[in-house]
Amino acid sequence: MDYPEELIKKLVQIARDLRISAIEMIYRRGQGHPGGALSSAEIISTLFFHYLKIDPKNPDWEERDRFILSKGHACAVLYPALAKLGFFPEEDLLKWGNIGHHLQAHPDRLKTPGIDMNTGFLGHGICVGAGLCLAGRLKGKDYRTYVLVGDGECQAGIIWEGAMISAKYKLSSLCVIVDYNDVQLDGFVHDIMPIEPFVDKWKAFNWAVLEIDGHNIREILNALDKAKEIHDKPTVIIAHTVKGKGVSFMENRSAWHGKAPDEKEYLQAMEELKRDE
């Protein structure tokens, strides 16, 4: 589809806003995972502010699309999106991670409106997503399920168990998006436990495979459109991204997988992220 430039600019700005919020939250809390939050900002922006069929006033709406942040440690980019949409007040972000608060260090569907699955223990998102798709099929519902996973997460065997069952039942309502930034906690994915040939793996598991620039809004939109047109198998969108995108000293650095910036680093990050506003 030929999407209007106005929409693209809007989603780009929202992605920038989500990055700013994520860094502010992580700095304020003194903990968090900036690298993978920043790398997935355009994906979250596009899904939540244009693509997903959801209703903030009715978070448990039966007909809604489902979204699973399988890489739950990146929730610092998801919570601001939910708040911006009105699932809960934006001031709640100030209490992220506080004991007893509904916004925890990893998503909890029993506490937070807009969350469809508890995540944090990596690898389970695709399996649960498959279950949601099967449930929708049994109930005659036409909702779609989107699962965002990390590339390091794809080193886990349970990812491929989920891939197998999804292909077996031809779950075309399932769309997995891989945040492929090639950096995990201790270094580069290709050094620690290579996942290539990644495209061939998914094809061997009988998935439709699309490859995109995960920071290009138009490519994200078009890939999501193509996934909807595939009716005989699940789809995986391999989104090539940059860990720590938007903050120069965080980009492609494993040290920023799970570390909060100090005051000097925070101020520099804010300056860089707000430069193009």
Question: Approximately what portion of the residues adopt beta-strand conformation?
Answer: 5-15%
Helix content: 40-55%
User: H/E order of the elements?
Assistant: HHHEHHEHEEEHHEHEH
CATH topology: Rossmann fold
Spans where pLDDT lies below 50 across 5 or more residues: none
Spatial strand order of the main sheet:
1-2-3-7-6
Number of strands: 7
* Overall average residue pLDDT: 97
Largest sheet at a glance?
Answer: 5 strands, parallel
Per the principal axes of the C-alpha atoms, what is the gross shape?
globular
CATH top-level class:
Alpha Beta
How many structural domains does the protein architecture include? 1
Rg over CA atoms, rounded to whole Å, is 18 Å
CATH superfamily: Thiamin diphosphate (ThDP)-binding fold, Pyr/PP domains
DSSP helix count? Answer: 10
